[in-house]
Amino acid sequence: MLEIGTQVHPYPHQDALYILLHRNQILIEGDNQFLIPFSHFQPNSNMRPVFCGQWHGQDVFTCRFDSMPKGFKEINLRDLLFLQDQDNYILLSRAHQLASWDRDHQFCGRCGTAMKDKHPKEHTKICPQCNLRHYPRISPCIIVSIRKDDQILLARGPLSTKGQYSNIAGFVEAGETLEQAVAREIREEVGLEVTNISYTDSQPWSFPHQLMVGFFADYLSGDITPAPGEIEEANWYPIDNLPHTPNLVTISGQLIHKHIARIKSGN
């Protein structure tokens, strides 16, 4: 299990493990092995390692390569995540988010000065000119499974895999509660009103820095009206006759699975 603490972050060292990235791909060895010992690769001055935490007592860093190193294969993060258990999923998600934050925030957004190295006790970039601090960005998103009797609502967006259906989801707006975001997204995307909104679970989603917050909700009123450009298709599906849904490693797949169990139990 990954341990994330507030202790002083160590510098990269030979006894640590490394998660290596090239562009937006994860570098792997053998049977999708993504935790790489220091002795298995040649470090360079452009790597910029970022400390992720401790994995079973061993320090873990993530870093990017500008050019593809020898001896590795590349795999898409999404594909690799779908092969993991929950602990590995969290580790990979954190590593990718921290590496993206480090790459994308080299200069101060207020005055343009090059940011200083990170604070030794936390992931922080500090501007030496105006003292602006920047922490890793986290973008909260809601995702909701909606029930109507013994049916749940599933939808497909224009970028969705053909034939795969999922839950309604969307970003939380400034000044908005999570519950308000649930009601608004459902209203905007499929034209429905809901009630009994209840939190169920959350999961990081590293594309690139979302935190997915899962909810259940009950149908209240309205007819399904897919939003043009947002929803290609949306329908009510009986829980014993669902179309293809997301992998169970994702919060969407878990949300659907839990809601079906809840409906079958009479809750």
Sheet of most strands = 7 strands, mixed
Structural class by sheet pairing and helices: alpha+beta
Helix percentage: 10-25%
Number of strands: 15
The topology string of helices and strands comes to EEEEEEEHHEEEEEHEEEH
What is the radius of gyration? 21 Å
Which percent range describes the beta-strand content? 25-35%
The average pLDDT value, as a whole number, equals 93
What shape does the CA trace take? globular
How many helices in DSSP terms? 4
How far apart are the first and last residues' alpha carbons, in Å? 33 Å
Q: Uncertain regions: pLDDT < 50 for 5+ in a row?
A: none
Overview of the molecule:
The chain is an alpha+beta fold. Helix content is 19%, strand content 33%. The chain has helices spanning 77-81, 86-104, 178-190, 251-264; strands spanning 2-3, 17-22, 25-28, 36-37, 50-55, 58-65, 73-76, 125-126, 133-134, 139-148, 151-156, 168-171, 193-205, 210-221, 233-238. The chain is globular.
